[in-house]
Amino acid sequence: MRSIIALLCFSLFSQYAIAASLHLPDRTETVFVNNKASHQQSKVVLDSTLPNGMQQIAFRYQARYRDNGSQNDFISDVIVLRFNASEQDYRLTLPPINSAASAKKFNLKPAITLTDSSGNKIAFTQDKLIKSGLQIGRDFVQEMAQYNASAAIAAVASSTVINPSLNPVSGATIASDHSSQVISPSADVIEVTAEDITQAEVMRMLDYWYQKANNQTQAEFKAKIN
After folding, report:
1. How much of the chain exceeds pLDDT 70, in percent?
2. End-to-end CA, the chain
3. Which secondary structure element, helix H or strand E, spans residue 5, and what is its range?
4. Overall average pLDDT of the 27-43 stretch
5. How confident is the model over 149-167, as pLDDT tens digits?
6. Read out DSSP for 16-80?
7. What is the rounded distance in angstroms from the CA atom of residue 89 to the CA atom of residue 86?
8. Element (H, E) at 176
9. Lowest mean pLDDT: which of 15-19, 142-146, 148-152, 176-180?
10. Are 82 and 53 in contact (CB under 8 A)?
């Protein structure tokens, strides 16, 4: 009897102990994970029961750096990541942001590394979720639904099995904007002025704090804008 109970306990423990997860760098926040809005940091629970274990995560990278004696906040564009996962831990690695130049470089072409629990590089597809106009109060579930209905490179079909051979990446990244324009490593760097960077960061910070506010504060903010 004790052996049966022990076996049942072991089976139950194994069922919950084995899971897929993604560890994120500090100051990284998800906005969407597998068809759901998300505001997780540090660790994301993945769903390995999805077709082919295909995961889709959208996140923003935040950093603070000193430039000319003043502190500056950086919030990246929303990055969409698609990869296959099994029941193990994965780790996302991002470069440090310590200057305006490194912030601009990351936004133009995010350098991302994805590894498994053994330290092996994992293939993934990377894109950006770009929205023009006001960034306050973005509905990421709706935006991602529209994104997935498009032919974007990191899209995941809701009712069909994704072919993992599409857009493979072997220890590298594929970056594009929402129109699925691929940016190759040899692509020319777009010059962005300091004023453009400042306003972009202001817009992202406004969106960040709007998402953190309660319903009353959000309503008051919208009223001021109108």
Report:
1. 69
2. 70
3. helix 2-17
4. 92
5. 998 999 998 643 334 334 4
6. HH---EEE--TTEEEEEETTEE---BSEEE--TTSGGGEEEEEEEEEEEEEETTEEEEEEPPEEE
7. 9
8. strand 175-176
9. 176-180
10. no
Per-residue pLDDT tens for 168-190?
A: 443 333 343 433 333 233 333 33
CA 168 to chain centre: 18
Task: Tell me which amino acid residue 110 is.
Answer: P
Tokens of 130: 């770009």
Closest of 190, 2, 31 to residue 104, by C-alpha: 190
Interatomic CA distance for residues 80 and 174, integer angstroms: 11
d(CA 75, CA 100): 12
Count the Cβ atoms, other than its own, within 10 Å of residue 165.
7
Alpha helices in 55-193 (DSSP H): 100-108, 140-148
Can you read off the two tokens belonging to residue 214? 């309660």
CA distance 181 to 197: 22
- Cα–Cα distance measured from residue 45 to residue 24, given in angstroms and rounded to the nearest whole number: 11
Contacts of 208 (CB under 8 A, 6+ apart): 60, 62, 75
Structure tokens at 216: 């009353």
Residue in the block written with tokens 């194994």: 14
- In angstroms, rounded to a whole number, what is the distance separating the alpha carbons of residues 157 and 150? 9
